[in-house]
Amino acid sequence: MAIRLSGMASGLDTDSIVKAMVSSYTTRKEKYQKAQTKLEWTQDAWKSLNTKVYSLYSNISNLRFSTAYNLKKTSVSDTTKATVKAGSGAPSGTQSLKIKQMAKAGYMTGAEIKADSEKTTLAQLGYTGGDAKLEVKMGDETKSITLSASSTMNDVVKELRNAGLDANYDSSYKRFYISSKKTGVANDFTITGSNIDGASALYSLGIAYGGEKTTAGTYSSNPYDEYAALHGVSDDETKAKIEAAVASYNNLTTDAAKMNAQSKNLMNAVNYGYSYATLQGIYEKLNANNAGDSDKLKLLEKLGSSRDGALISKNGDSYDTYTKTTLTDTKGNTLYKYIDSDNNSHYIAAVADTDKGTTSYYDVTESTRTAYTDADGKELEAVPTGDGDTTLKVGDKTYKKDEADGKYYLQKEDGTADKTDFITVSQKTEYTIEAGAVNKTGIESASAAYDTIIKSMDEKTKSSYDEALASVQAFEASKDEVLGSDDEYSVASLTKAIQNAYAGKDKDGGTIAVSGKKAVEQLLAGNGNEADGFVNKANALEEAAEANTKKAADSNIVKELASKQKDSAEYTQALNDLLDRVNTAYTLQNKALFNSQVKKVAGQDSEIELNGVKYTGDSNSYSINGLTIEALAETGDSAISITTSTDTQGVYDKVKDFLTEYNNIINEMTKLYNADSAGSYEPLTDDEKDQMSDKEIEKWETKIKDSLLRRDSTLGSVMTAMQTAMMSSVEIGGKKYSLSSFGISTLGFLNAAENEQNAYHIDGDEDDANTSGKTDKLMAAINDDPDTVMQFMQQLSTNLYSAIGDKMKSTDLSSAFTIYNDKQMKTEYTNYTKTIKEWEKKISDREDYYYNKFTQMESAMTKLNSTQSSISSYFS
């Protein structure tokens, strides 16, 4: 940069002069700065609008499905006994509810002890033992606690809480209060001593519970009984009892798992049976219209998602399936492959017929030849020579085989191999259209054939077909993880039984009197004997499994041992640990160190009856068939009623909320599109801002910002797409509906407020001053025919969702889920930054140039002035 002197000799305002001289450059730079600022504001405007459009797009996604409108409301005859919420799947009508029993948490109130504060120690209570080992058991989980004579009441509380209980010591009443954190039998707890010192410590703490003391001096719920029952006269006998209990536990759990699996299959088979019969009926109807369609459809069903790209060809009474491969024939035609029953592969080539615009199919032959490839992968004409093809000749070059890697290397004149020039030998498979092959006829696109058959069905049949096929395929594809395939109630066995019944056969293949749907229904219902029906069998097996599970739970103490591999070191260690526990429990049982004053309330499951069916659980909350029930108090044998109906107001509000969000966005778009022109207003420079007040600057910039999207073609395109979707009609049951069919319309240009001509209003909406006085056609339609309203709204939402989605697709100019050209704007912004920097450099260079000139002038004038002063001195 040149040294800048500001008129020291000349007296000129050099800065102002230079600034004026480079003003044309400065003007250009400011022009780009203003354009960049305007672009930045435009980006901000689009970002804000895009966020709102994307929010609408996301919110209407769920409105495309019936579950969004299938709203229910419910009332309870006695809200002091229960509260009930209805989900979309809850059936309409009145149901009966009895609350037989409320769930309770296990609760213990300890006996009074002599601990004056939370800091009192076990020793101060008279405990003189060593390490006191305790066990806290909740359901299947057991946690160990170790206390000592120095442990305080606070320490005890802390350890009990760490073990998963709620615990407190009240120094006023000098006793412990302990409870489960959750309700239910499975969450109840016991606290026992693992050794003599542990039992003594519990006794000192006043929480050694053994039930009520009997007249015989024993305790009704001795917590050590379960372990002590396995005690024998010797350790060997005790181990034998333990292992017998393990065997019993394993048998019970294995049988329970088997019966549960059988019950599940039987229940699923009921739905499968009816679906299978429905599907066969549809097949028969298809065949009546066009023989062979059912066989074709069955094949196409098996192909499933692989129908795309597959071909089928009639072969006698059956069909061959050709699947598309990545292979081509020697002319580049795509190959399709068919594997016959002997596992042999057959190929056909798809040859485009350019004259007719169709595709012809020809059989191809598969052949293998030896290929010779150079280091670059190029195929060569090579001739094998020598014994065992040890050399290859390519023109006048000789390549010799290297036995180590099987490649042939170029032989140099000195007899050595050139490792950079080699030939690889491989077997190449080629496919050629057979000589004299004729175009195969009867080839069909699998997906097109499927669509043709499906389209031949009426709407009701198509709906039944979809549901029945999904059910049949789901059951037949399900796998038995517990049952063997030969089990009477395995998926394979039940599938065969139902299919045999439909075909008029018994399980052994013999002929039965009836066939078809009636035979299947008889099989499922039990052929006149209700107990043989699938549902009753399933229920009986489930009850038996539940009994086994409960019985196994009674011997839960061997559960950990049963999980170990017998004869392993882990099994031996666990067996010895359990042996010690049994021996200790036997000793503690006889010692009977229990506090008679301690009280324990057992954990309790809740029990309700809904429509006469019993349900139990470890909490007071139930979710049954779309109802969420919260039990509050027992009703005894009296029943309360639950009434469920369609929430018409909820459906109305759903539609209204959707329109409100749409209106807010379309009104904003309309306002932005119709904004007044900013005219000659441009973003202000810093110098211009210095001459204006903050209020004036804000007003100036708002004028520009409000006009940024005025008549924007992209904005107009998005608005048009959204408006077109909202104006679309929907055909339901042969009748066309639009928003106006339900009293929803715009006010028109003459009646609407400014920039609100595209907004929709609901006739009779009490919140809308424009239409509140009109007849509420929407609510009337929801009350009279809610299904039609829901179907219409689903399709309308789908149309709008698709319209917005199409505008949000990613392109070279815009990102995904973006309605404006954000990529293009980002590039333009970067280009402006680059251009502005270039002009800043030009200005700096030009200023340096002029300042340099002025510096030279100032220097010359200084010399001149000095000379003049010197001359003047001679005359003074």
Supply the key terms.
alpha+beta, extended, 876 residues, 22 helices, Alpha-Beta Plaits, 20% strand, 44% helix, five-stranded antiparallel beta sheet
What is this structure's SSE topology?
Blueprint: H1 14-21, H2 23-62, E1 72-76, E2 82-86, E3 93-101, E4 107-109, E5 132-138, E6 141-147, H3 153-162, E7 165-170, E8 175-180, E9 189-193, H4 196-205, H5 225-228, H6 235-289, H7 293-303, E10 310-315, E11 318-328, E12 334-339, E13 345-353, E14 358-374, E15 383-385, E16 391-394, E17 397-401, E18 408-411, E19 417-433, E20 443-445, H8 446-455, H9 459-477, H10 491-503, H11 516-525, H12 534-553, H13 559-562, H14 569-591, E21 599-601, E22 606-610, E23 613-617, E24 621-624, E25 627-631, E26 640-646, H15 648-673, H16 686-690, H17 694-706, H18 713-727, E27 730-732, E28 735-737, E29 744-745, H19 748-751, E30 761-762, H20 777-784, H21 786-807, H22 822-875
